[in-house]
Amino acid sequence: MVGYVRVDTTNKIANGEVVDASFLDAEFDGVQAAFHAATGHVHDGTAANGAPITKVGPTQDVTVSGTAVLPKTDNTLDLGSATFEFKDLWIDGTANIDSLVVDTADINAGTIDGTVIGATTPAAATVTTLAATSGTVGGSAITTANSTQTLLNKTLQNPVIDDPTVTGISTFASTTTFNGVVNSNANLVATTITCNSNLVVNAGCSFNGSTGQIQTTRASLGAPQNPQVAGGVGQWLRQTAAATTTFTLPASGTWAYFYILTNASTNVFISMEASVAAGGTAVLVVPAGQTLNALSWRIS
């Protein structure tokens, strides 16, 4: 590039000198070359050229340095407008933006923190893994549960549940499958329950009033109601009562019992009875001259 250096180095263009057109012509040729559109001077600070331009705009509104392009005053200049837009924006680094409005967005990496997505105009989302502390679908809250979490007043549609403990009235609105031992401390309400292991309904509980049915792959409801010597649910006892004494069931729980009355002298059979009653119930005063032998089984 050609900068401007004075051609008249011998000072022929000066007061008192003879006017010679060749000196003037050479000087103007130098000026013309310095301002040539393609090969003229540049502003790079080198000899015969201009100083670098670091401020531009009507009132020097933008400052340019080797590391930044800055507005003269904070938060006053726009980059483009609604009518005159830039085409593409390429940034290799971090974009710090207070408020972002985009027509379309393609985000291929990173995270979005502290942001509501779709608050005004929700749209479809395709994700591989969604981690959320809470959520709502169709106006209803989504509740997640793990092995130690409690569901309170929730209706589950066609769930498959492993080893739950039910401590309140639980409604399963359709077919429900339990893959593990179910401990029910309160009522279970469902259309159909399929239990692939033990279903334990504890004292004072019922299954679906009088309308439900239980489907199980086991031959019985299973432990712990199976007969056992140890105390507690499932305990199996032989009881006797002599004439004029009272046959009373053991305290606590609910008992199924069966007894036979025989003649106290000849052991001839007289009568028998079976039923279910609460623990501590006085079932029968043995008639005079008779003996009672009973089997009692605690079922809850």
Could you please describe the fold and organization of this structure?
With 300 residues, this protein is mainly beta. Among the domains are: 145-216, no CATH class; 236-298. The protein is 5% helix and 28% strand. The chain has 1 helix and 21 strands. The strands form 7 sheets. The protein has a 4-stranded parallel β-sheet with strand order 7-10-13-15, with no helix packed on it. A hairpin with a 4-residue loop joins strand 2 (62-64) and strand 3 (69-71). The radius of gyration is 49 Å and the shape is rod-shaped. The termini are far apart.
Indicate the radius of gyration in whole angstroms.
49 Å
Counted beta strands:
21
Largest sheet: 4 strands, parallel
Q: Would you identify the regions where 5 or more consecutive residues have pLDDT less than 50?
A: 208-224
Overall, the morphology is: rod-shaped
Content of β-strand:
25-35%
For the residues shown, what is the average pLDDT? 76
Tell me the number of helical segments per DSSP (H or I, 4 or more residues long). Answer: 1
* Topology as a string of helices (H) and strands (E): HEEEEEEEEEEEEEEEEEEEEE
Query: How widely separated are the two ends?
Result: 104 Å
